[in-house]
Specification:
The protein has no helices and 11 strands. It is mainly beta.
Length: about 120
């Protein structure tokens, strides 16, 4: 079984910063890509940022230049540093990891989500 545990959400004023973390635990061999998604009320879930095991990154257009994704492979943890936050960044942020183990092969796992609210 694989679990993803997110932390770091909260409320912040526009222009502020937050850092989200997501730690992967359980029975697995390796973690390939890791990513952050978000879902605002009434909207579809969208990809925020993705990072490969080698550290290659890609960002959604709405967060480029403001968010930075990183990972620590020794801790099986992915982070996203969110700066210059805007009200439209409000939503539930979900961690995603593509994990390989011998029993199930490669499959995607999701965290439970953490709320980010940007409001004055």
């Amino acid at each position: 079984q694989v679990q993803l545990a997110e932390s770091g959400g909260g409320s912040v004023q526009p222009g502020g910063s937050l850092r989200l973390s997501c730690a992967v635990s359980g029975d697995f061999v390796t973690i390939d890509t890791m990513a952050w998604y978000r879902q605002a009320p009434g909207k579809q879930r969208e990809e925020v940022a993705i990072i490969t095991r080698a550290g290659n990154t890609n960002y959604g257009d709405s967060v480029k230049g403001r968010f930075t994704i990183s990972r620590d492979n020794s801790k099986n943890t992915v982070y996203v540093q969110m700066n210059s936050l805007k009200p439209e960044d409000t939503g539930v942020y979900y961690c995603n990891a593509n994990v390989y183990n011998f029993a199930t092969g490669s499959r995607d796992y999701w965290g439970q989500g953490t709320q980010v609210t940007v409001s004055s």
